[in-house]
């Protein structure tokens, strides 16, 4: 068994992946902008994730922008059997610090075609609408992607940064196999969405699973990690895995040692008392 397989698997429609994935955005340059300083090192991180048994990679056209998808293709194409790449469209980056929603159907269809080209794919296994655009009716955005799915460019559809109402609306338009919302030990605002995903058998991808490091400063978490002889990040990831069977954490890093540390968290089983203490 590979390290990433220790937490079991989760379904993405008719696809099955190990329940610890890899968020690839960190291999881009600082602020997820531009190429990495060491492109070969970024390739090594991506390849090491495969060696560790990670078979779900999360990316988006806005990471870089466009850089992240190109790095994945450079490092991994032709892709190994069983690898599922999930990408997203619907955010644009006019500047380094801007993440602006663009849910216009014409933009989403152009973004999808760009992702297909950069990833060197004829069909994307999982394409997620990155964020609702308040200027565009949500149903129009999802409907455009549902049409692309019928055209054979998308295998499975997901949504990201959605409310419970928006998830229900998306599911009335097309089958939804994943939701990617912010969720971690300190931020559980999407608890209702997670519950709906559990009921429907929809995979839940928590972004910022470690809260960009903020979660790890919790004194309770640090004490628990010390008692278990492990690290706070291990405990935080193990808590997510224990939280729900549909949870698919995607911790990201540009460091091989950090990657290896994250993946070994798949084997950590927290005691019932520790889970209760974390709430």
Q: Overview of this structure, please?
A:
There is one protein chain. The protein has one domain (3-274): TIM Barrel. The strands form 3 sheets. A 7-stranded parallel sheet has the order 3-4-5-8-9-10-11, covered by helices on one side. The chain has 10 helices and 11 strands. Helix 1 crosses helix 2 (67-76). With 279 residues, it is of the alpha/beta class. Helices cover 39% and strands 17% of the residues.
- Structural class designation: alpha/beta
Counting copies of identical and different chains, the oligomeric state is single chain
Q: Number of folding domains?
A: 1
Strand tally, please? 11
What's the topology here?
Layout lengths: L8 E4 L2 E4 L3 E2 L15 H13 L4 E3 L8 H10 L7 E6 L1 E2 L7 E2 L3 H15 L4 E6 L8 H13 L3 E7 L3 H10 L2 E7 L8 H10 L2 E5 L11 H10 L3 H12 L12 H9 L7 H7 L1
Parallel strand pairs: 3-4, 4-5, 5-8, 8-9, 9-10, 10-11
Antiparallel strand pairs: 1-2, 6-7
Helix pairs in contact: 1-2, 1-9, 3-4, 4-5, 7-8
Summarize the structure.
By secondary structure, this protein is α/β, with parallel strands linked by helices. The protein has ten helices and eleven strands.
Keywords:
279 residues, alpha/beta, TIM Barrel, two-stranded antiparallel sheet, 39% helix, 17% strand
């Amino acid at each position: 068994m590979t390290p990433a397989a220790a937490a079991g698997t989760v379904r993405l429609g008719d696809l099955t992946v190990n329940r610890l994935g890899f968020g690839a955005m960190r291999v881009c340059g600082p602020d997820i902008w531009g190429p990495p300083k060491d492109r070969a090192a970024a390739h090594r991180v991506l390849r090491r994730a495969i060696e560790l048994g990670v078979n779900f990679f999360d990316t988006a056209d806005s990471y870089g922008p466009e850089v992240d998808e190109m790095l994945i293709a450079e490092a991994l194409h032709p892709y190994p059997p069983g690898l599922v790449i999930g990408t997203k469209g619907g955010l644009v980056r006019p500047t380094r610090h801007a993440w602006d929603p663009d849910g216009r159907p014409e933009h989403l269809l152009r973004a999808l075609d760009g992702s297909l080209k950069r990833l060197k794919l004829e069909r994307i296994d999982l394409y997620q609408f990155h964020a609702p655009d308040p200027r565009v009716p949500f149903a129009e955005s999802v409907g455009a992607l549902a049409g692309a799915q019928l055209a054979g460019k998308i295998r499975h559809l997901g949504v990201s940064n959605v409310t419970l109402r928006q998830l229900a609306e998306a599911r009335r338009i097309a089958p939804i196999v994943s939701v990617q919302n912010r969720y971690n030990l300190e931020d559980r605002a999407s608890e209702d969405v997670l519950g709906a995903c559990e009921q429907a058998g929809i995979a839940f991808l928590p972004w910022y699973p470690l809260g960009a490091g903020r979660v790890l400063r919790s004194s309770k978490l640090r004490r628990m990690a010390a008692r278990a002889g492990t690290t706070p990040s291990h405990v935080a990831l193990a808590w997510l895995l224990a939280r729900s069977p549909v949870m698919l954490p995607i911790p990201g890093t540009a460091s091989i040692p950090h990657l290896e540390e994250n993946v070994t968290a798949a084997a950590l089983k927290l005691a019932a008392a520790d889970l209760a203490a974390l709430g």
